[in-house]
Design goal:
Blueprint: H1 7-15, H2 30-40, E1 52-57, H3 60-67, H4 75-80, E2 83-90, H5 97-100, H6 107-112, H7 115-139, E3 143-147, H8 152-159, E4 165-174, H9 190-193
Antiparallel strand pairs: 1-2, 2-4, 3-4
Helix pairs in contact: 1-7, 2-7
């Protein structure tokens, strides 16, 4: 059986896509990022909760505020990427559920009235959306450089001082620069990753 997605698109999204470590100075436009969001917003989350929030870091001032919280190895690429996105979970996503799930407005209070339940569900679903976002960046013909090496508490305080959002991932975005990619590491074979019971 073959996949419905064209092989060229499969390559763009998966097989030929790599994490980028350097970027050209070509800017990433607002239109490109809007197109990414308008595509990936349709990917599934539980109860359509859509808890991912995207903070675009473009100005030199905002970039300096972010870079100081990045781990040492991530500072140069974050300093020079044309655009960086801070992906976070909205811990009050449940307030939008009556709008996002109009056929079941009671879900807001039934499942998400307690902060711990909201954080667990929101973090899981926003993490799913972060993966969708990276695929959307690739679908736009751009390279993504996702990073988990940063001071989460520092980034949260810097950008979300009210405690209503928590950072999950930082993603550099742009056209690949010189020597942007490392050699692809091996992946598990089907037999090693899939079990039928």
């Amino acid at each position: 059986m073959t996949l419905a997605l064209d092989p060229t698109a499969q390559d763009l999204l998966f097989r030929e896509a790599h994490t980028a470590y350097t970027f050209s100075d070509e800017p990433v436009s607002d239109e490109q990022i809007r197109a990414v969001y308008e595509l990936v917003k349709y990917a599934p989350t539980a109860f359509n909760q859509s808890p991912l929030r995207i903070t675009l870091v473009r100005s030199p001032e905002a970039r300096a505020r972010l870079v100081r919280h990045m781990s040492e190895g991530n500072r140069p690429k974050t300093s020079t990427a044309p655009l960086t996105a801070v992906l976070s979970v909205d811990l009050e996503f449940h307030e939008r559920l009556p709008e996002l799930l109009p056929h079941a407005p009671s879900v807001k209070d039934k499942f998400f009235s307690e902060a711990g339940a909201r954080e667990a569900a929101g973090t899981f679903n926003a993490t799913l959306q972060a993966g969708y976002f990276i695929l959307g960046v690739r679908a736009a013909g751009l390279a993504a450089g996702p990073m988990s090496g940063f001071d989460r508490h520092g980034v949260d305080k810097e950008f979300f001082g009210d405690g209503k959002q928590k950072t999950l991932l930082v993603v550099n975005i742009g056209r690949p620069g010189e020597e942007a990619y490392r050699t692809r590491s091996p992946r598990l074979a089907y037999e090693d990753a899939v079990t039928e019971v």
